[in-house]
Amino acid sequence: MIAAVLRHVGRRLAAGVLVLWGAATLTFVALHLVPGDQADAILGPSLTATPQLRAQVIADYGLDRPVVVQYLDYLGSLLTGDLGRSYQRDMPVERLLADQVLPTMQLAVSAALAGLALAMIAVVVTAASGRVGRTAATVLDLVVASVPNFWLGLVLLTLFSFRFPIFPSIGASGGLGLVLPTLTLALPLGATLAQVMRQELERADRAPFALSVRARGAGELRLVLAHTLRHAITPAVTLSAWIVGSLIGGTVLVENIFARPGIGRLLVGAVVSKDIPVVTTVVLLSAVTFVLINTVVDLLYPVIDPRLRAERAR
């Protein structure tokens, strides 16, 4: 059993390394295909750069070497843990990211927990409401899940910061500054999870064990909370990769709408200024997060569903 688990972990780690290599390579290629000269991006908007200074920058950064050589040097630096220096801020990328990771993590974690909590509440409340109630809840979930994050963020900002000044409109100071950005990400996420969980809950509700629980005199609420809800939560684990991807993409918009510090705002500025070391590091950080989450979830499946343990042991 242990050997089978180790083999499985080894395969997942190998696949993760390929994903990271692919992400790094695609980022390098995409940024080199963006119009504009990289030396100009390094020099910034200054109009007083002399030809000598420009030539010095090209030589210092190795921009006069073939693209293949630049690519190999770039991979070599990543393998040694050298993330480079930001072109625009002239500081190590790891130090630049150190101040931005925590606000983004706070927003992503709070949105994931809030989205899951909202989905569970919606599923439990509508579990015993009959077919009409569940249909109405499904339609509402579909509408909320279809709302773009940026539009929802602007509506919440207009209502609860400008019309009714309950929450701050910008910044990340204190817990109140986290409420509206969290809701902006959590509402569509929770609506999508609720749709999937409700379908699984209805499937479990028709299973033989549910009939047995009812035969013992258990009410619908007890059936849901003690038995069928665990089956409804399983799809949320399956969708964890999608959840991570949606939160990573959503924070880029939300951090700009609410003027929050974070990796999202940093990434937008780095792409505009063609700050390759910063863009590359943010993309790789997202890829590492994606790989780790998928690996952990894959290892948790046998814990959630014991039937998979026998399959892994073969």
UniProtKB/TrEMBL annotation:
Entry's PROSITE patterns?
ABC_TM1
Tell me one GO molecular function of this protein: dipeptide transmembrane transporter activity
A Gene Ontology term for the protein's cellular component: plasma membrane
The UniProt entry lists membrane topology as: Multi-pass membrane protein
Q: List the subcellular locations.
A: Cell membrane
Instruction: Quote the PANTHER family the UniProt record gives.
Output: DIPEPTIDE TRANSPORT SYSTEM PERMEASE PROTEIN DPPB-RELATED
- Tell me where the transmembrane regions lie: 12-34, 107-127, 139-162, 174-196, 232-258, 278-304
Q: Where is the ABC transmembrane type-1 domain?
A: 101-301
Its family? Belongs to the binding-protein-dependent transport system permease family.
Instruction: Report the Pfam families cross-referenced here.
Output: BPD_transp_1 (PF00528), BPD_transp_1_N (PF19300)
- The reply to whether Cell membrane figures as a keyword in the UniProt entry is yes
- The name this protein carries in UniProt is ABC-type transporter, integral membrane subunit
Q: Which domain of life is it from?
A: Bacteria
Q: Which CDD domains match?
A: TM_PBP2
- Please state the protein's primary subcellular location: membrane
The record ties this protein, via InterPro entries, to: BPD_transp_1_N (IPR045621), MetI-like (IPR000515), MetI-like_sf (IPR035906)
The keyword Phosphoprotein appears for this protein: no
Give the UniProt keywords, A-Z.
Cell membrane, Membrane, Transmembrane, Transmembrane helix, Transport
